Amino acid sequence: MFLKNKGFTIVELLIASLITIITVGISVEVYLAAKKDFTLNELELKTLASANETQVALSSAIVNAGFNSKYGLFSWHDIENITEDSVPEFGHENNRIMPRIYIETVGDSISNSILPENAVAGTDYILLQGSNIESTLTDNTLSGSNELGVSNDFASQLAANDYVIIGSAIAYTLGRVSSIADGKITLTNNLKWSVYSGDYIGRYQPTVYYIGNSSDPDGELRVDENGQQINSLFSFSKNNNSTQQLEIIDNISNMQITLHKLGTGNADSDWKEPSVFDTDEVRYRKNLFNQIDAMRIQLTINGENSNIVIRLKD
């Protein structure tokens, strides 16, 4: 009688090894598939989060653009510039699509004098008028005069050559500060309209939102894993001196802006570029402002196209 070998035969070992290899292979495939799905989901979530952050940032800025004056927004004409200065960051009337909101494409002569060097040509930018310090006048000042009564606190935060916005029942006026004394500021030019105690005054500071090249702390341009330039959404505020641009969200590019009119549909053809509006509508802007009810901002976020719609009317 033959005794059975207590070990495994060669055939049994080969079969066991084959089963192990197949099992490990399946596990690796499952892991790689799960990892791929996780990577895609992570990218989708990041893109969604970036889109939400971008919408919140731009919506808040656009809706709150302007000046906190008791007279509200003047939509009939632009703010009157009495400084005789060429103030590019004040915005160009032909680019104004809503009170205090301007849209233009990077690469024109106006943008070249407003934006930092990292702005990406061919993309749209938004200029929003506003003030970073606000107060009210303490005295009456007749037209033809250039001295304004203000609070000491407001005066202490101004510097010579700062631009100020004065809002009255007649108009908004852009002036430039010549000198400052206790409770008084003197403008470089005389007012064309009388202003009164309680009227609005603010230090003018527009904010521009644009697409720019992203850089690391050493100033080197950032690139992705494929060697492509990384772009970001930036904001840039300016008074009489440039301030450092702020990088808000990275991996955002190709900002293009279109507008929607009341009473039209929601097809792509119903969204118009700001430049295509009739010149008569540009001249008589009150009619134009009353018709535009929404703005669509098209962006590429983490390589994915995204549309942000901002309602301009309730």
TrEMBL record:
TM spans (from-to): 12-34
The keyword Transmembrane helix is assigned to this record: yes
Transmembrane helix in keyword set: yes
Keywords: Membrane, Transmembrane, Transmembrane helix
The protein's name in its UniProt record: Prepilin-type N-terminal cleavage/methylation domain protein
